[in-house]
Design brief:
The chain has 318 residues and is α/β, with parallel strands linked by helices. It is built from 12 helices and 7 strands.
Length: 318
């Protein structure tokens, strides 16, 4: 039987030991040049169709090639469109200075020249995280600083298991105040994450502001907040403060922090240790843990203006 099989293979004109089946007509057609073998020739033939290689093919096969070319062109256009949209989103959402570094530092110096500064934040620790270096420099220059904290942050973390978290967070903010040295601190006690939903929040801010008569107001940026961290109370309290200032007839400077469109920078290299010490008073938020530091964020701010550490703002007059 083995001999008969071998003889049959030799009679078929194939080398001894070649047991492959004869190629079918469709497979032979797939080896033809051009688009005619696109369906049977695999990816190389499909690619040939896509780029228009091959001529003299049957009508049915030409239609297949045309369809492949259309699909490839649409895919190319789609990829290009996604790339353009991605670039546009990156430009729109990334944080970058809107003025040259030298001008940003000059604007930072303008911030430090104010003598009556009203700061409005959403929670205890907000000021210490973002702007306490600037507050320290203002206080050291003799400025009168009033910090208003809208909410006690009762829905925030409780790393120490405090029985009364709102009261604990108020005490932590008072301890941070002692480190930085600003003269006045007020708590509004509004519900956490519902600050702007309170009917009297605008009137309360307006009353405090008109009583204090600041030359500079500092608050969260409600229009171009820095990403990715967003909080409804942060942008919300910023909108409330902005609305109050828009109603005033007397213009006042405003410095928005936590912004992705800064035009002012205050160097805090010499006061960073005080800033870090103030942050560490917020034990309930875990900010006193060994090794904790927001120095990388301040260093990134500083790198934009050529100094070691900085806090950045969007400075306007309203």
């Amino acid at each position: 039987m083995a001999g008969a099989g071998a003889g049959g293979a030799r009679r078929a004109g194939r080398p001894e030991g070649d047991y492959r089946l004869p190629r079918r007509p469709l497979e032979r057609a797939g080896r033809a040049d051009g688009c005619g073998g696109a369906a049977a020739g695999g990816f190389p033939r499909v690619l040939g169709c896509a780029i228009g290689v091959g001529t003299g093919v049957a009508r049915k096969e030409t239609i297949i090639c045309d369809v492949i070319r259309v699909i490839v062109r649409w895919l190319g256009a789609l990829i290009a469109g996604v790339a353009v949209l991605g670039l546009a989103a990156w430009v729109a959402l990334s944080t970058r200075l809107t003025v040259p570094p030298k001008e940003a530092l000059e604007n930072g110096e303008r911030i430090l020249q104010h003598s009556r500064v009203l700061v409005v934040v959403a929670h205890p620790d907000d000021a210490d995280w973002w702007i306490s270096g600037t507050l320290k420099r203002l206080v050291d220059r003799g400025a009168q600083v009033l910090l208003v904290v809208a909410s006690d942050g009762e829905k925030g973390p409780n790393r120490i298991g405090a029985k009364d978290l709102p009261a604990t967070r108020r005490e932590e903010q008072k301890a941070a105040q002692a480190v930085i040295g600003y003269q006045d601190l007020r708590f509004l006690g509004l519900p956490d994450r519902e600050v702007v939903q309170q009917p009297n929040v605008l009137e309360t801010i307006e009353e405090i502001g008109e009583e204090f008569q600041p030359t500079l107001v500092i608050t969260f940026d409600p229009d171009t907040p820095d990403l990715p961290y967003l909080h409804p109370d942060h942008e919300g309290i910023g909108r409330v403060v902005k609305h109050w200032l828009e109603k005033r007839t007397q213009p006042v400077a405003i410095a928005f922090f936590h912004t992705r469109r800064p035009n002012a920078a205050v160097e805090i290299t010499d006061v960073y240790e005080a800033k870090l010490q103030a942050l560490r008073q917020h034990r309930s938020q875990g900010l006193d843990r060994g090794g904790f530091s927001n120095r990388p964020q301040m260093a990134k701010n500083g790198s934009r203006v050529g100094v070691p550490l900085a806090e950045t703002f969007r400075l306007e007059t309203m």
